[in-house]
Amino acid sequence: MSKLPHIGTSIFTVMSKMANEYNAINLSQGFPNFPVDERLTSIVARLATENVHQYTPMAGYPPLLTKIAKLVLDSYNRVAIPETEILVTAGATQGIFTTIQALIKANDEVIILDPSYDCYEAPVLLSSANPIRVPLNDDYTPNWETIEKACSAKTRMIIINNPHNPTGKILAEADFVRLENILKKYPDLLVLSDEVYEYITFEEKHISAHTREQLLDRCIMISSFGKSFHITGWKIGYVVAPEHLMVEIKKVHQFLVFSVNSISQVAISEYQDIVDVTKLGKFYQEKRDYFKKLLEKSRFELKPCEGTYFQVASYKSISDEDDVTFCKRLITEYGVAAIPISTFYANGKDLKLIRFCFAKDNATLEAAAERLCNI
To answer: Which residues form the Aminotransferase class I/classII large domain (predicted)?
Structure first.
């Protein structure tokens, strides 16, 4: 008997598989296709012959924990204690899974804001808890009245994703004020803040939960080196949480992976001495703007993108098809793979919107745009 009976193959897997079958340009799955920084690969090449291949301590390579604390301090002016408030994980997804497994009990309720990334619901269900899917407004701003109505004495956690995948939206100051007011009414409520795209913001920087004094004691932060350093295949991220929550998170982590692969931790620890994450936003903003310019003559309407490396586009002027059907036809007839936004909703809400990933080299973006402009 399945523990996740309604969950099938991920839409990302489906679209990438179709892209391969039809030799389509893959703008569906969120990974860069350009080379990793040579400074990082050089570090890895050197470390391959050094004594860095055994288990690290369970919570992470101690120098890396110290570097993460410095990164958090430099980025958000938050003091995080390396030994008790930081955990290195096998990707942000493992950090999310571990956190939910550790802190959510049977019959608890967890509020998930749709459209939402698909890794949130499964660990809630596997905890015998209840995911409460609350849709964002159609412009992807939170409807705090609806969110508050969904809260009850059973609500244990609200998951926020900022900057937001798939929409590219960032939360405003007013959003955090409303969230903090809800927390005042429900003293046992926690916040899981998924900020894996924290350094990929454009005209305005996102407001991190790290900077919200009222959240610090009740918030679990999720970050990703994979997203920040273009190394998604390394599957390495980190969690920052107050000690009383981190104690429980580490209990699950030690039995799930125990420790994350050692060479990547040592390499990233060294790399942080020479890399500047503050330049990442400018790098991706240039790609966002270039992709937008390439599509100016297309029939797609591009929606505002405030962060992440995803561009949401409306195809209303092209077709009345549902978005899944349209995306499949986009692959088979035009040779470009995208992701239908309806698959991020519990109810499959279809606004005729699809998501492109622009974390690609310019040649790939140009080739894809040429095909998209011919539709």
So the answer is: 24-372
